[in-house]
Specification:
The protein is α+β, with helices and mostly antiparallel strands. It contains twelve helices and 22 strands.
């Protein structure tokens, strides 16, 4: 029986664990949080920090694993690439490429060095390391980010240099490596996109783009609140980004596998590749894409990790218009959940999946990042106009009630 090691233990691992079991393999999870949700569904759990790549390697060698993944788990990607390279296991890329992709500062430099569209950006380790002349390097306002966090944690928009210190503190609080980047704040022409494509032999076989919407009233207005397929991004921009993403894959020597890729088009008229991570995205993106496009990237990622033959992966068209709603509470202070109520008309007509991560009595906190999500709802519509009409009224038909 093949052994699959999964880094992390969030609920986003559930479809991966199911796919592994359906393929007849022994699924092992590990992290330093034994109470994480997914551990109760794996066949075996080990308390090992997923950011300690040598500790993960030691565990993997002792267990004699056949594959490793860090699906929807950004902190474990570098360790997974390291273990795969040391043990000769399948992975999307080399350890070196994973290090570049997982560090926002290194990635921005790689993009700039290879003539991709990229905002002005520099990597720093503390506020005192910013030379005075760098303040004129950026086109203000700027955005400050940890180099190594996902889910928009630690991200702040800054209007002027005198406001940097607090933003840097917030970024460093969310950084595992105590490093951050400052980059030009891009104003979107349309919407930001977050989606999961898949490569075979380094070539993109399935690509999608989304409209990622944010909640301006949330505690962190840069955390995604809705992700919509099909995208309204112009086809010419989609084609450009696909070609540039393929060029990036070629430069980094990518192989088989799933990726979470974020892109946008700025009001300067340029399309930008913002993030590329060799893992499935959080927010259940691949699960929704499976329903909307009929392509099972999750099963294929498990097959890839275990060295098993892939099923057919091809470009398909989106069946209708879909929205993944990241359920959250617009509150200033934390409270205890009483219930989450969905209008029965919306439930019957549009809702396809409800996956709440909380129950009555659980603590609900302000929406500061994706980790404060209360769950997800998948909805399907026949037209974008219908989707937009229903979703703009979401505060009327979805109620998060606190005690």
């Amino acid at each position: 029986m093949k052994k699959l090691l999964l880094l992390g233990g969030s609920r986003y691992l559930m479809p991966v664990i199911k796919a592994g079991h359906d393929l007849g393999c022994h699924v092992i999870t590990c992290d330093y949080l034994p109470d994480n949700y997914a551990h109760q569904f794996s066949d075996e759990y080990h308390n090992v920090s997923i950011i300690d790549k040598d500790a993960v390697l030691k565990l993997a060698q002792e267990l004699k694993i056949d594959g490793i993944m860090s699906f929807a788990c950004d902190p474990g990607v570098v360790s997974a690439a390291y273990v795969a390279e040391k043990m000769g296991l399948p992975f999307q890329c080399s350890y070196e490429s994973a290090v570049i992709l997982q560090d926002k500062g290194l990635f921005r430099k790689f993009l700039a060095d290879n003539n991709f569209n990229v905002p002005h950006a520099k990597r720093y380790e503390n506020v005192s390391s910013i030379p005075a002349e760098d303040y004129d390097f950026f086109c203000w306002p700027v955005i400050v980010k940890p180099v190594d966090s996902a889910g928009s944690k630690g991200v702040t928009k800054v209007e002027s240099p005198d406001k940097l210190d607090e933003a840097i503190r917030i970024a460093l609080d969310s950084s595992l490596s105590d490093s951050f980047i400052i980059e030009d704040f891009l104003t979107f022409d349309g919407y930001h996109s977050s989606a999961d494509p898949f490569t075979v032999d380094g070539k993109l076989q399935f690509v999608s783009y989304s409209d990622q919407l944010f909640d301006p009233t949330a505690d962190n207005p840069y955390t995604p609140a809705m992700i919509i397929w099909q995208s309204t991004m112009k086809q010419c921009h989609q084609d450009y980004l696909t070609a540039e993403t393929q060029r990036l894959m070629d430069l980094l020597g990518m192989k088989h596998g799933i990726y979470n890729i974020e892109t946008c088009v700025s009001t300067d008229g340029k399309p930008y590749i913002m993030e590329v991570s060799p893992r499935g995205g959080g927010c259940k993106i691949a699960e929704l894409q499976r329903m909307a496009y009929g392509v099972d990237l999750i099963e294929n990622e498990v097959r890839k990790a275990l060295g098993m033959p892939l099923t057919e992966i091809k470009q398909t068209q989106c069946d209708g218009h879909w929205c993944e709603m990241i359920v959250h509470a617009n509150i200033e202070k934390e409270g205890l959940l009483e219930e989450i109520v969905i209008d029965p008309v919306i439930m019957e007509k549009h809702v396809k999946v409800v996956d709440f991560a909380v129950k009555k009595g659980d603590l609900v906190k302000p929406f500061t990042g994706a980790n404060m999500s209360l769950g997800d709802i998948f909805l399907r519509f026949d037209s974008r106009a219908e989707l937009d009409d229903v979703m703009k009224r979401s505060n009327d038909w979805l109620k998060v009630i606190l005690q």
